[in-house]
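Why do we care about 3D structure at all? Because function follows from shape, and shape follows, mostly, from sequence. That is the central idea of this module. The next example makes it concrete: a single protein chain, its amino acid sequence, and then its structure expressed as tokens.
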Amino acid sequence: MNQPLYVAAAKIYPRAVHGWFAAWRWALVWVTQLVFYGGPWLRWNDRQALLFDIAQRKFYIFGVVFWPQDVIYLTILLVISALSLFLFTAVAGRLWCGYACPQTVYTEIFLWIERLIEGERNQRIRLDRGDWGPRKLGLKAAKHATWIALALWTGFTFVGYFTPIRALGADALGLLGWNAGTPAPALGPWATFWILFYGFATYGNAGWMREQVCKYMCPYARFQSAMFDRDTLIITYDGARGEPRGGRARGRDKGTLGDCVDCGICVQVCPTGIDIREGLQYECIGCAACIDGCNQVMDKMAYPRGLIRYSTQHALDNKLGVRAMWRRVFRPRILVYTAVLWGIIFAAAFALVVRIPLKVDIIRDRAAIAREVEGGLIENVYRVQLMNTQETARRFRLSVEGLPSLVLVGEQTLEITGASARLVPIKLRVQPAQVQAGKHPVTLVVQAEDDAKILVREKTIFIVR
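And the structure:
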């Protein structure tokens, strides 16, 4: 007997649903996409407000400029994101997956386009099962053309965060010949590649793969259970109230049946095609579409809402009330997560507020560690890299301290333009009679002439032979 290695997955046709959770889901779709598509078009100080310029190694975020030396802030951001994920998952399951994950958001948008062009669930099923003809070909072509246009615009916007989007747009218009005769450089090969790559990824993931990404490709679905416990809010079916399930006419006495009328709406609206009545499953992304769908049916049947609802396993097993359930939701684990998260957020915010907009790196000249120059002085040579991380030009004064008779030879006052770096060679000299042979700690002091608070003291070594 031959056993197939793979089971062909049936196509899922999610049914449109309306309700409180659907409204929240669409609100987050609007918020996330307004931020994403609008972010690179914002202006700040005559430049793009949000620009991650990898080529120049500068990240512009409104009025703040981050350099490679600021990688600690990226680390803090990742730690905050991870702790937030742990916190929200421990409280209410896969909130990220159900409401804000790009896969969920773009699948929702692509499904809306599909419904707009091909119709609701039953119409889409009939269209796919029907024979090919002019109508079917036209509807499919219109849908995929709209999908591809949105996907390419998404890829263009994503690349616009790393390349100035206005220049990128001018290059794209020049490539298409839409620049009204004005010469424009063609879109570069790397920009073209990444626009097409992210466009194809959006089109493939949201248009074709959909729930397959959540089921088989996303690792979060696999390790989420490690963050759940019996007091985590999850989408649950109240079997004690709903069973035994069975159909009945509206207004008819249900007899020994439970509240579940076995209509299958909860399955039809599920974007991953699971039956929540079978219990919590790793395929459940926590979108709560089944709650909205079931509540609509309960309203029609004049039954109380909440047959499918957010609850905890502990509350279901022990028939806890809402207040008792919420008291257990905010348990010590959640309080610790919250305290640690807010502590890190406040510490990061404080570090940004007191951050000195000047960075100094000293590099010893290895070709001339220590040498004797005119007058018998001992000289060490250094290269100093000064980075003005603000976008305002400043003048800085250099001085040294740490040894008697130590003097600095070279530029002692210099100007650095905004958000730029300058490499300056300096020489330090001492009287050999006043120091012993060996290594001596010295300090280079760099201070802004117009702001006494902008002061950096960088230590280095002076070698006497």
